[in-house]
Structure formats: structure tokens, C-alpha cells
Amino acid sequence: MTANAQTSGASEMSTPQCGIGYVTGIGGSAQSLQDYRALPSRDQYRYLADNPIQCKVSDEGRASACTGLTSLRNEEVSVYDDIDSTTMAVVARVELDHGTYPVIIYVPKQAVRCKE
Fold first, then answer.
1. How does pLDDT run across 16-40, given as a tens digit for each residue?
2. Were 81 and a residue from 1, 31, 43, 89 both cysteine, which residue would form a disulfide, CB within 3.0 to 4.6 Å?
3. CA nearest to 110, candidates 10, 13, 2
4. Is 43 part of a structural domain of the chain?
5. Does 98 reside within a domain?
6. pTM tops 0.85
7. How many CB atoms lie within 10 A of CB 106?
8. DSSP percent split of the chain into helix, strand, coil, nearest 5
9. What pLDDT is stored for residue 15 in this prediction?
10. Phi then psi for 84, rounded to 5 degrees?
11. Is residue 110 part of a domain?
């Protein structure tokens, strides 16, 4: 799959559109990410520690019904969808209690860097 980055000089918050990218930062369920971002920075670390990502895993190995957050460090992801002006959904391989699975998570757009 080829990733084509399109840049826009319109604003600092705009993010290039691509198929494959790298994420460094916090990601997780929509509600958990929203709650995390609403906290003062001094409380975010505690929230992250108290709310690790958890998902139901089917017999076929599909993760769903995820809650919580995970920290990503230069993880390769497939860009899934733009959610709003500051958030996007990506498919990332996430370590869960049962092993590592591809999971759709939400991340801040500024945390995504397109693969060249």
C-alpha cells in the first residue's frame, strides 16, 4: 500500500492525509481519550496509569469494545478515518492481557506522522 502525504499550509492543526503512518503519544477509546485530554496536564499521567486499554477479544482474534488508553511510541498504524478536526481513528497493534492484537483506537491528529 502506498501512502501519499498531502500537506496543507492552512493551519498548524491540519494533518496530512495518508494510509500508513507512525504515532507517538496517547491513544485509546474515544471516551477515554476525550476524558484524558480534558484533564489538566498534572492529572493526565495518573489517568493513563489508572485506565490501561482493555478490549474484548473474540475466538477469531478480533478485538472490540475497547476502553482505556495506551501509550504509543513511534508505532506504525493504518489510518482508518478522520473523526473531527483534532482526532483520527487508526488501527494499531496493541498489547493486551491476551497478546498483541490490531485495534481501532483514537489518537490526536498531531500525534500522527505519515510514512514516506
1. 578 899 999 999 999 999 999 999 9
2. 89
3. 13
4. yes
5. yes
6. no
7. 23
8. 20, 50, 30
9. 47
10. -155, -165
11. yes
